[in-house]
Amino acid sequence: MLMANLIPVATSVGVNKMVPTISIPYPLGDPSTPLDEQYKLRYHRVGVALDALTADISEPTLFKTKI
Amino acid sequence: MKKAILYLNQFFGQVGGEDMADHTPEIREGLVGPAMELDKQLGDDIQVTHTIICGDNFMGSRQEEAIDMIKGFLKDKEVDFFFAGPAFRAGRYGAACGHAGRAAQKMFPEAVVITSMDEENPGVEMFRKDMFIFKGGASAAAMRNDLKAMAQFAQKLAKGEEITTAKDEGYFGRGKRKQFFLNPPVPATERVIDMLLKKLNGEPFETELPVPVTDLVPVAPPVAPEKLSEATIAIVTSGGIVPVGNPDRIQSASATKWGKYDVSGMDDLKAGEYQTIHAGFDPMAANADPDVIVPLDAMRQYEKEGKIKEMYKYFYSTVGTGTTQKEAARMGAEIAAELKEAGVDGVLLVAT
Fold first, then answer.
1. How many domains does chain A have?
2. Would you say B238 and B352 are in contact if contact means Cβ atoms under 8 Å apart?
3. Is B299 near chain A, with CB under 8 Å?
4. Most buried in the list B102, B136, B250, B269, measured by CB within 10 Å?
């Protein structure tokens, strides 16, 4: 299960499960936002990734995030 | 005279280094940085009129916005040739050159799009079908040669000279088949028998119909949803997070080493105790809060809530910039073997 910002690169090399992150230097928390907001985003996206581990997929899939 | 535009990242566009990687796309009249050498190499038939400069992270994180802006820059320009890079082995830059080139091609279907990358650059596989990607060097030391190859090919096209095979011209095959006659002619029956004999004798031969090899990993069986609460989940990152001081001396680029670090009893990764040693991005945010790359705090919360049983006590780390596919595959296999041995049920790979 890959958490990455460059989803087109991940897709091109055939990664099966992908959750997008928000940037290259800070995948899971934008330093220009308050700490609690960073944590909220990180908590949400890690949760999506954990759920994605249980998904039964047959082809490369990008999992949707809300925050 | 034909007109050309060159796309560069913030570094080669002389705006700045990693700290300027969020640089908003801009277009400048005339020649910036490598545009001068390119223009010189292109001779009298083709002139570089403008240079586009865009931060690699801007293109990586806000791609749609970046492409829209670049399209805006191009709409009143004459574009016979669109050059990008060369991007060497820089993955973000390679992808950015590809995205910019593809956008230019869409706007100007008659234009020729040319870039250059090292064969390990992921941009090659992403965009080789869309444009001419010349086989370039691994680092900026190859700048002059790479620009020359791009320019010479453009000159050839501008003069209407015949193009032969991708291999002979020096670009990555675009997956297009082109028929041409051999000179002197050799019938197909003779060529195929010749190949067969070589094959039977165990000699090397060159097929005329290369089939691309794919190196795909099958989908891992899922963790049963009702079993997630009993699962041990590991975190593996290419973002270079290590204890301050980098005890395993993992390289900051072109890594061949990985490390594993025990986080038992910690609730999050503290600044000053952990840092990133990755040389491919601005480390400020990750050094201020390493959890933005190794989300230990969020994992601990999911343990408390019972969503997972636990985070595996070690996280694994290496650096994914300039790292060859071969080394990456080896390190991946080594780490996977350890995790399997330890009975880890699932892995989150965090990339930067």
1. 1
2. yes
3. yes
4. B136
Average pLDDT, chain B: 94
Q: For the segment B60-117, what is each residue's pLDDT rounded down to a tens digit?
A: 999 999 999 999 999 999 999 999 999 999 999 999 999 999 999 999 999 999 999 9
Residues of A with CB under 8 A from a CB of B: 1-6, 8-10, 12-14, 16-17, 21-29, 31, 35, 38-39, 42-43, 46-47, 49-51, 53-59
The reply to whether A67 falls in a domain is: no
**Which tens digit of pLDDT belongs to each residue from A1-55?**
999 999 988 988 889 999 999 999 999 999 999 999 999 999 999 999 999 999 9
Query: Can you give the pLDDT at residue B213?
Result: 64
Chain B residues whose CB is inside 8 A of the A39 CB are 297-298
Structural domain containing residue A12: 2-62
Task: For chain B, list the strands marked E by DSSP.
Answer: 2-9, 26-29, 46-54, 81-84, 112-117, 132-135, 232-237, 241-243, 259-262, 274-276, 310-317, 346-350
DSSP label of B20: G
Specify the CATH number for B2-169; select among 3.40.50.2300, 3.20.20.30, 1.10.645.10, 3.20.20.70.
3.40.50.2300
In a domain, A46, yes or no: yes
